[in-house]
C-alpha cells in the first residue's frame, strides 16, 4: 500500500484527504438530511469533535492499510460536497466502497463519479481482486449509484443490520477484477 494518501481527479471532482480547517464544514454537511440515516457508521448527531477526530485519523487509517477516506471537492471552487471511502481487506484483496453526498449536491452524479475513481484506484494501485458495497434496501439512490459504476447486484441479506432499533435489509453489489478489466 502506498504510504502517502492519494489525490484523485475526475472531470468535476478532486478527491483528497480533508484538512483540519474543514472540520466545521464536515460537521455541518454530515448533520444534513439522510446522511446518518442512510449510512452504517455516521452517528447522529455528528459533533464537531467527531469531525475533528475523523480528520485526524484519515492518514493513519490509510497508512495501516485499513481505510481510504477522501473528501469530494468540486474542481474550480474546492467546495466540499461529500465523502467517499474504500475499506480495505488486504488478506482477501477486497475493497468495500462507502460514501455520501451533501443534500444540496445530490442527483448531480458526484457519488458515482467519486466511487468510480476510488474503485479504479483500488484495482490499479492497490491490486484488489474485488470491490463491492452494500446499502439499505430502502436506499434506492445508493443502489442506483452502485449499478451505474458497474457493480453487479448480488442479493439481499434480510434483516442484516440493526439501525435505530429496526432490522434493515441490506443489498449487496460487487465486481471482480476480470469484469472491471473488460469494461476498460
From TrEMBL:
What domain of life does the native source organism fall in? Bacteria
PROSITE patterns cross-referenced by the UniProt entry: GNAT (PS51186)
Q: Does the keyword Nucleus apply?
A: no
- Does the keyword Transferase belong to this entry? yes
Q: Which UniProt keywords apply?
A: Acyltransferase, Transferase
In what residue span(s) does the N-acetyltransferase domain sit?
13-172
Q: Which family does it belong to?
A: Belongs to the acetyltransferase family. RimJ subfamily.
Q: What is the official name of this protein in its record?
A: GNAT family N-acetyltransferase
Amino acid at each position: 500500500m502506498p504510504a502517502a494518501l492519494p489525490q484523485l481527479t475526475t472531470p468535476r471532482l478532486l478527491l483528497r484527504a480533508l484538512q483540519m480547517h474543514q472540520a466545521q464544514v464536515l460537521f455541518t454537511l454530515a448533520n444534513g438530511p439522510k446522511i446518518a440515516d442512510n449510512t452504517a457508521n455516521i452517528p447522529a448527531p455528528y459533533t464537531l469533535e467527531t469531525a475533528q477526530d475523523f480528520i485526524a485519523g484519515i492518514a493513519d487509517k490509510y497508512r495501516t492499510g485499513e481505510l481510504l477516506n477522501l473528501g469530494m471537492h468540486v474542481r474550480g471552487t474546492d467546495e466540499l460536497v461529500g465523502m467517499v471511502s474504500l475499506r480495505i481487506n488486504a488478506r482477501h484483496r477486497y475493497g468495500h466502497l462507502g460514501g455520501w453526498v451533501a443534500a444540496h449536491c445530490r442527483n448531480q452524479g458526484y457519488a458515482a463519479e467519486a466511487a468510480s475513481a476510488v474503485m479504479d484506484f483500488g484495482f490499479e494501485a492497490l491490486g484488489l481482486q474485488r470491490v463491492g458495497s452494500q446499502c439499505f434496501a430502502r436506499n434506492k439512490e445508493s443502489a442506483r449509484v452502485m449499478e451505474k459504476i458497474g457493480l453487479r447486484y448480488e442479493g439481499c441479506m434480510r434483516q442484516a443490520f440493526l439501525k435505530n432499533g429496526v432490522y434493515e435489509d441490506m443489498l449487496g453489489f460487487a465486481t471482480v477484477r476480470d469484469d472491471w478489466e473488460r469494461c476498460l
